[in-house]
UniProtKB/TrEMBL annotation, chains A, B:
HTH marR-type domain segment(s): 1-131
SUPFAM superfamilies found in the cross-reference section: Winged helix' DNA-binding domain
Gene3D superfamilies: Winged helix-like DNA-binding domain superfamily/Winged helix DNA-binding domain
Positions of transmembrane segments: none
Protein name: HTH marR-type domain-containing protein
Keyword terms of this UniProt record: DNA-binding, Transcription, Transcription regulation
Stored InterPro entries: HTH_MarR-typ, MarR/SlyA-like, Tscrpt_reg_MarR-type_CS, WH-like_DNA-bd_sf, WH_DNA-bd_sf
The keyword Transcription appears for this protein: yes
Amino acid sequence: MELVGSLVRLMHVLQDLYAETSRPLGLTPQQAHLLCVLLDGPLGMTELSRILSIERSSLTSMVDRLERRSLVARTTDPNDRRACQIALSDAGSDLAHEAHNAFTGRISALTDDLPATHRKQLIAAITGITERS
Amino acid sequence: MELVGSLVRLMHVLQDLYAETSRPLGLTPQQAHLLCVLLDGPLGMTELSRILSIERSSLTSMVDRLERRSLVARTTDPNDRRACQIALSDAGSDLAHEAHNAFTGRISALTDDLPATHRKQLIAAITGITERS
DNA sequence: TATTGTTATACTCTATAACTATA
DNA sequence: TATAGTTATAGAGTATAACAATA
């Protein structure tokens, strides 16, 4: 099954690229991921932990570190006094956009020579894989 | 550029799957990766750190932990008294095969409904991407 | 001098278990 | 009772800088 090997190699290549791209921005890959997820809007801890596939207690310390750097802020949820919403600060939003653009640029450079038809097929195949997981 | 988003999602899906598969074997994803790399034969620290994309000092502690569990062993390099070779023990080899088979099974399950022609195209496209990195 | 690998140190990531406050 | 989030703790991953031994 050569496809499996290809996918695993691709995962590692993208992981390395993600790490190399995050580092010069002063972010770990996990921090970059968190910030980019928040680009779609604030989220509660439970929802964010689900999206990032980490325990809530692990997320607490990640958010602590990012909040100390004023990249995110916890705000209270008016509808549920137990809950909080994690939102990007202005600086966090800028950095998240910067990271997102950097990733996009780096990955585009790997794929920009694919003809449009192959590109469409590739998107369809990958989407099929990720939707089954 | 929708392709970039697809690739990033794929990376995260595969990372999660890799972690979920490693855990019940008592391995972190990084440890599983290390053991699987050694399936092709013993390697020196510098070469192994290059393959895993981590610093040699980080690798030292990883190998320490695996050696404490008797999954790998350091052997001296007869040609260079500075160097060592990291090799799988019998138990480490068994576990590496088990991990490899588990990954293969899980990823196959995501891709086994692709027709052979699409599969070939997908392998070609992915190989093109990874070879450029 | 250059290379191989290690040590020391400091952070970060992560999970488990126990906890508080609110629903 | 159940859920949202935190705290405490422990272990693992990682990088940087300095080092020892050998090439």
